[in-house]
UniProtKB/TrEMBL annotation:
Gene3D superfamilies: P-loop containing nucleotide triphosphate hydrolases (3.40.50.300). SUPFAM superfamilies: P-loop containing nucleoside triphosphate hydrolases. GO terms for molecular function: ATP binding. This is ABC transporter ATP-binding protein. Residues 21-258 form the ABC transporter domain. Keywords: ATP-binding, Nucleotide-binding, Transport. InterPro entries: AAA+_ATPase, ABC_transporter-like_ATP-bd, ABC_transporter-like_CS, P-loop_NTPase.
Length: 273
């Protein structure tokens, strides 16, 4: 495995179970609209945190705020114990190498081959020989359960599930410590979604990743997430393992976790066992 020299000596070493992402009193808005209204949340090193909320409620905005892609009106975000707002350009680039992102529109670059897509972050951040990049590419492809010969294909030749896996391989290209996934199973059939969940759980265990996963998928929440945070009205209104969600009296959480969809999936009964 290739490890990049991303740890500056001043960077605190975060232990498993300690916060690797700390969001405090964050306010984000666009024009007149305030989307995140003093939101606070900790994601602990080594956990899979699922993030749920009403459509349009601000889940993607929070993800992009943590990544420093959306300006805050107030509040702080620390990742790896570092406040992104205080970093120099170089420090920021070093930090970016320590996370991988699979965005909702997990789009691959359609004019690039799978190999070129996966190598994109390597070219952006590292200075590696083509032979080494090819070697890493094959390792990542195999890691996400694809055959090596997929690297020569164009995205248009792949199924939806394969595209997600290639996008995941690209997110893993720099051996990140945190993986951000924005609705990773959307658009997949239930079997494909279940297989993708299993892959995430396996990768989390074998690589010791921390995973922050925005999802609407009740099965994902139930099967892979260590903890879940629910967003409503711009704030986190419940956070904890699935049992905490099932016991919550908040109307949105109740409607979500005990609603028709949850019952149809047999989710409430399983979760309540
Ligand atoms: N750059 C932007 N400029 C203006 N409004 C924005 C911008 N980005 C997001 N919004 C608005 O912020 C709100 C929250 O959007 P966001 O994409 O975070 O929702 P979400 O919870 O991820 O929804 P979904 O589950 O449907 O993906 C939406 O009303 C959206 O239109």
């Amino acid at each position: 495995m290739i490890h990049t020299s991303h740890t500056a000596s001043s960077v605190p070493d975060i232990q498993p179970g300690e916060p690797i992402i700390s969001v405090r009193d964050v306010v984000v808005g666009f024009g007149e609209r305030t989307i995140l209204k003093g939101l606070s949340l900790d994601v602990m090193k080594g956990e899979i945190m699922g993030f749920v909320g009403a459509s349009g409620g601000g889940k993607s905005v929070l993800t992009r705020t943590i990544l420093g892609l959306v300006p805050k009106r107030s509040g702080t975000v620390e990742v790896f114990g570092q406040d992104l707002d205080t970093l120099t350009y170089e420090q920021r680039r070093q930090l970016e190498q320590r996370w991988g992102v699979l965005f909702q529109q997990g789009a691959l670059f359609s004019s690039l081959t799978v190999r070129q897509n996966i190598q994109f972050p390597m070219r952006e951040y590292l200075d590696l020989s083509p032979a080494l990049m090819d070697e890493i590419t094959i390792a990542k492809v195999e890691m996400v359960g694809l055959q090596p010969d997929v690297v020569t294909k164009m995205p248009s030749e792949l199924s939806g599930g394969m595209i997600k896996r290639v996008a995941l391989a690209r997110a893993l290209a720099l051996d990140p410590e945190i993986l951000f996934l924005d609705e990773p199973t959307s658009g997949l059939d239930p079997i494909g979604a279940g297989e993708f969940d299993e892959l995430i759980a396996t990768l989390q265990q074998t690589l010791g990743l921390t995973v922050f996963m925005v999802t609407h998928d009740l099965d994902s929440l139930h099967t892979v997430c260590d903890r879940i945070a629910a967003l409503a009205d711009g704030q986190v209104i419940a956070v904890g393992p699935i049992d905490t969600m099932l016991a919550s009296k908040h109307p949105w959480v109740t409607a979500y976790f005990h609603g028709k969809r949850a019952r149809a999936a047999g989710f409430v009964e399983q979760g309540a066992r």
